[in-house]
Design a protein that fits this description.
single chain; about 200 residues; alpha+beta; four-stranded mixed sheet; four-stranded antiparallel sheet; about 25% strand; globular
Length: about 200
């Protein structure tokens, strides 16, 4: 049950067939044998697949591991080319005005929880027993609104949903798939609280 306490987003597949496969995996992961999940868990980001050109995760080519760009509207776009140097990414986000705790995880692992006190039910909240409960949690979650997967390599952070003193906690997990290279967990930690260092543990989901 602990591994279901997180809200995750996965990059959408490049083709309708891959998208259908992702949906089937989601259905398998939410069968009745897992009666309750704590917080929303989004495996496919809607509205991004159409027209998207998918290219593999870059590794060892001299390309920067990541890029951070702040738009005039205040949103921050993060491009992830390689899962390395989380401290450097934290520093770049701080320059853009976002206090963040970044973790890059190996395949089939997750951070042991609880690591922090969340601002909402996206992390460690009350159980959601059906799809309607999960939808309600997502719609009312600032954590979900603050960070969205935009494409195969990019996420968008919306600081208007992050209040003073709060920390954006993001975990990227290597997906071992060049076309869906990582899965993202993103939550907001309460102001004035500590985010514990990540202790990776096995996650077979």
């Amino acid at each position: 049950m602990d591994e279901l306490k997180s809200m995750w987003q996965a990059i959408p597949p490049a083709s309708p067939e891959q998208l259908a496969g992702a949906r089937q995996r989601l259905l398998r992961q939410t069968r009745p044998r897992r009666r309750a999940v704590t917080g929303p868990r989004l495996l496919v980001a809607a509205g991004v697949a159409g027209g998207l050109v998918i290219t593999p995760l870059i590794s060892g080519t001299g390309t920067s591991a990541y890029a951070v760009a702040k738009s005039p509207d205040g949103t921050v776009t993060v491009t992830i080319n390689e899962l390395r140097d989380p401290s450097g990414l934290e520093a770049r986000l701080a320059e853009a005005g976002v206090t963040a705790d970044v973790t890059f995880l190996a395949p089939n692992t997750r951070c042991a929880d609880p690591r922090f006190v969340s601002v909402d039910g996206a992390y460690g909240g009350a159980p959601a027993t059906d799809a309607n409960d999960m939808r309600s949690l997502m719609e009312g979650s600032r954590s979900f609104k603050a960070t969205q997967v935009m494409s195969v390599r990019t996420i968008q952070i919306s600081p208007q949903y992050i209040r003073r003193g709060e920390t954006l906690v993001v975990e990227f997990r290597d997906n071992r798939n060049p076309y869906v290279p990582w899965r993202l967990g993103a939550w907001l930690a309460q102001a004035g609280t500590t985010v514990k260092p990540c202790t990776p543990i096995e996650d077979t989901q």
